[in-house]
Amino acid sequence: MSVNKVILVGNVGKDPEVRYIDNNVCVANFPLATTERGYTTRAGVQVPERTEWHNIVLWRGLAETAEKYVRKGSQLYIEGRIRTRNYEADGVTRYITEIYADNMQMLGKREQQGDAAAPINAATGQPAAAAPAAAPSAPAFTANDASDDLPF
Predict the structure, then answer these.
(1) Residue 136 lies inside a defined structural domain of this protein
(2) pTM of the model
(3) CATH number at residue 84
(4) How many CB atoms within 10 Å of residue 18?
(5) What is d(CA 64, CA 98) in angstroms, rounded to the nearest whole number?
(6) Is position 127 within any domain?
(7) Are 109 and 98 in contact (CB under 8 A)?
(8) pLDDT reported for residue 53
(9) What average pLDDT does this structure show over 48-65?
(10) 90-113 burial string, b = 16+ CB within 10 Å, else e?
């Protein structure tokens, strides 16, 4: 068994580049920055903040949604798969790692998002069924939850 899943929360580095290929299929590409905060160790050593850049690829409905609502600086939640491909340029083989998104959710203030506040389903490009506003975003566990077999 193997798993190829990535979850990212970060800021869009530039407006999506959108193009339409065979049979009017929409594809969008943009960079997404994720940043780890800097900190100071107990020994007093300063560890600076670190930013990683990820190449995001959206297809079909997700790409159309990105074309309408995603802009440079937008904060996004992305779920997807890591893919590595290669190409040849000037006789040199180059490799590129991309995140093929399955789900996307716009984060931040609602007035910045317009109508794209709901999670987007990759298959349909439509907003996914949203949980009621009072429901927590993660499952709630209690101290008496006996289904946990972890030793700590």
Answers:
(1) no
(2) 0.68
(3) 2.40.50.140
(4) 17
(5) 19
(6) no
(7) no
(8) 97
(9) 95
(10) eeeeeeeebbbbbbbbbeeeeeeb
